[in-house]
């Protein structure tokens, strides 16, 4: 989770772009893979995404992100491929009712590739943009009330805190002899369910503390123009947007 | 600076008073430690000073709390916040950002500190907390002690006259705890900030605080200079406070009639006490 959404500090061109530009580009790249039905074009978009991401956070990290997406889409591919009944049968599984067709494979492949191509730019954008910068630019440029921006940034910030809390509770229970490492999946769920109550209570307490702390530091006094950081729109932003526009246009016409 | 008169508070829905009939004066530049067993009302007392009680947490409020000349019931918490900075118990929960710099910016931006002044304030308070090198770090990757210093720096940047801290070392190891208290001491001595700190570690309070307030069952049972409060060891034990071993030693020596001076607050003073006792015994 952290690897996928986490911010990666750096000073690349992508890091330095206006947050709004990065959001527009990532949405543009997402859209581009839905505008085409060609596998090759989508593969090209994926390659471009990988290049972008590698230029900012390094090839190793980008490949890791791609790999986790490939794994996820592979599962969806397998699920999807059995549902398309049209086309020539390629493979029939023993009972006879379940079969795979050529159309099914092509369609599911498109589906899986689109998923990868759509998730990559979002993940790449989040790895080069601080959540706080995104929320600042939303408040300043898009005039979204600070309250809502704060809710979203807080929600994202609390995810790792909650998972840490959950680990703590699980460790405490393991120490009392609860076997969370059971192979039986249903049993594991049954063991985990009662942990929701303490997790909920400690989370609510944490959030309450956060709310008090924010209010004691003048949360309610904040105005749209309170933000200290400014996000200028420069030539590099214009150039990046132009490149992105070109790619979207290409996917439509190729 | 802080005047509390006949303060009682009961949380709405509560059966017992969380605070009953508390009167306490805290002067400018004081370093006051509040100690007591859990449930003694220490946190509630800090809430009464920073206005969380009765503004955010409701209940029956009797008596009067005046902070920097402001009645906490009449003045809103935001007005109070310009005078009192608060560091809460939960280290992670009280952070509002994921980067150290943004955490400091939050308060500065909200209170409308002129943008030209912000940079110097950030640098200054990070330096005062001794964490200048952490400025662009992700808060999630910091240690507990570092996070606590970030919380203190974020409050420092707002330049309050008073800082109220609720168990700032609750989740810290002894070494980090000391560092946090050293930071507090330098704020107190160099910047003249009044410090009110709830703390369970009595040895730390004895060493760093100038005054001590002992709470038990919502009441203030003892208050004064550290060595005076330590004199009444029975009262402290009754309140569930572990008195320092040097104070126990002084009590035993006093009972035997071997010693009649001040109760030592740290090892050095204890050494002086023992030298005195031994030289008397040699005569």
- CATH fold topology of the largest domain in chain B: Rossmann fold
The percent of residues in helical segments of chain B reads 40-55%
Radius of gyration of chain A: 23 Å
| Most extensive interface between two protein chains, with residue counts | A-B, 33 and 37 residues
Shape of chain B: globular
Q: Give a count of the beta strands of chain A, DSSP E runs of length 2 or more.
A: 2
Which outline of chain A best applies?
flat
- Structural class label of chain B: alpha/beta
In the CATH scheme, the class of the largest domain in chain B would be Alpha Beta
The main sheet of chain B orders its strands as: 6-7-8-3-9-10
What is the CA-CA span between the terminal residues of chain B? 49 Å
Measured on Cα atoms, how large is the radius of gyration of chain B?
20 Å
N-to-C SSE string of chain A, H for helix and E for strand: HHHHHEEHHHHHH
Counting structural domains of chain B, the number is 2
Features of the shown structure:
heterodimer; A: 254 residues; two-stranded antiparallel sheet; B: 283 residues; alpha/beta; Rossmann fold; 6-stranded mixed beta sheet; 4-stranded antiparallel beta sheet
Question: How would you summarize the topology of this molecule?
Answer:
The complex is a heterodimer of chains A (254) and B (283).
Chain A: H1 2-5, H2 13-16, H3 19-32, H4 39-57, H5 59-81, E1 89-92, E2 99-101, H6 102-128, H7 131-140, H8 146-175, H9 185-192, H10 196-216, H11 235-253
Antiparallel strand pairs in A: 1-2
Chain B: E1 2-11, E2 19-26, E3 31-36, H1 42-50, H2 52-55, E4 59-67, E5 70-71, H3 77-81, E6 84-87, H4 100-110, H5 115-128, H6 144-156, E7 162-166, H7 174-191, E8 194-198, H8 202-208, E9 211-216, E10 219-225, H9 226-231, H10 233-238, H11 245-255, H12 267-282
Parallel strand pairs in B: 3-8, 3-9, 6-7, 7-8
Antiparallel strand pairs in B: 1-2, 1-4, 4-5, 9-10
Helix pairs in contact in B: 4-6, 5-6, 6-7, 11-12
């Amino acid at each position: 989770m952290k690897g996928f959404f986490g911010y990666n500090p750096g000073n690349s061109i992508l890091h330095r772009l206006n947050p709004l530009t990065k959001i527009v580009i990532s949405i543009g790249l997402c859209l581009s893979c839905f505008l085409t039905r060609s596998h090759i074009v989508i593969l090209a978009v994926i390659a471009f995404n990988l290049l972008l991401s590698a230029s900012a956070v390094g090839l190793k990290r980008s490949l890791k992100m791609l790999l986790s997406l490939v794994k996820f889409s592979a599962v969806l591919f397998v699920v999807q491929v059995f549902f398309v009944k049209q086309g020539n049968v390629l493979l029939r599984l023993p009972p006879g009712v379940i079969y795979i067709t050529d159309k099914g494979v092509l369609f599911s492949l498109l589906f899986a590739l689109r998923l990868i191509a759509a998730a990559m730019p979002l993940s790449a954008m989040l790895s080069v943009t601080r959540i706080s910068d995104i929320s600042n630019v939303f408040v300043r440029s898009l005039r979204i009330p600070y309250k809502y921006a704060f809710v979203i940034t807080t929600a994202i910030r609390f995810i790792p805190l909650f998972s840490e809390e959950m680990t703590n509770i699980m460790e405490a229970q393991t120490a009392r002899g609860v076997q969370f490492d059971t192979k039986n999946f249903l049993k594991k769920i049954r063991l985990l369910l009662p942990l929701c109550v303490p997790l909920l209570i400690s989370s609510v307490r944490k959030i309450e503390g956060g709310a008090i702390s924010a209010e004691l530091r003048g949360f309610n006094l904040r105005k749209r123009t309170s933000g200290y950081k400014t996000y200028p729109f420069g030539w590099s932003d214009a150039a990046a947007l132009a490149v992105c526009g070109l790619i979207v246009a290409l996917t439509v016409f190729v | 600076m802080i005047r509390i008169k006949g303060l009682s508070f009961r949380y709405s829905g509560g059966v017992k008073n969380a605070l009953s009939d508390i009167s306490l004066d805290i002067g400018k530049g004081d370093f006051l430690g509040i100690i007591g067993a859990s449930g003694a009302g220490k946190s509630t007392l800090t809430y009464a000073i920073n206005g969380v009680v009765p503004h955010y947490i409701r209940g029956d409020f009797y008596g009067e709390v005046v902070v920097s000349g402001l009645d906490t019931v009449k003045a809103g918490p935001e007005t109070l916040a310009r005078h009192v900075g608060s560091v809460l118990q939960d280290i992670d929960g009280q952070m509002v950002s994921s980067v150290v710099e943004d955490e400091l910016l939050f308060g500065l931006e909200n209170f409308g500190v002129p943008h030209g002044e912000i940079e110097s304030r950030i640098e200054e308070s990070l330096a005062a907390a001794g964490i200048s090198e952490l400025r662009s770090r992700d808060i999630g990757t910091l240690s507990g002690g570092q996070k606590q210093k970030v919380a203190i720096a974020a409050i420092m940047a707002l330049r309050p006259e008073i800082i109220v801290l609720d168990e700032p070392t609750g989740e810290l190891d002894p070494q980090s705890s000391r560092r946090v208290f050293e930071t507090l001491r330098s704020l107190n001595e160099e910047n003249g900030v009044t410090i009110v700190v709830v703390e369970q570690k009595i040895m730390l309070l004895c060493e760093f605080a100038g005054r001590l307030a002992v709470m038990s069952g919502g009441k203030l049972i003892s208050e004064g200079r550290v060595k005076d409060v330590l004199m009444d060891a029975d009262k402290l034990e009754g309140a569930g406070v572990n008195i320092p071993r040097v104070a126990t030693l002084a009590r035993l020596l006093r009972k035997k009639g071997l010693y009649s001076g001040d109760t030592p607050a740290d090892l050095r003073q204890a050494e002086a006490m023992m030298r005195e006792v031994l030289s008397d015994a040699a005569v």
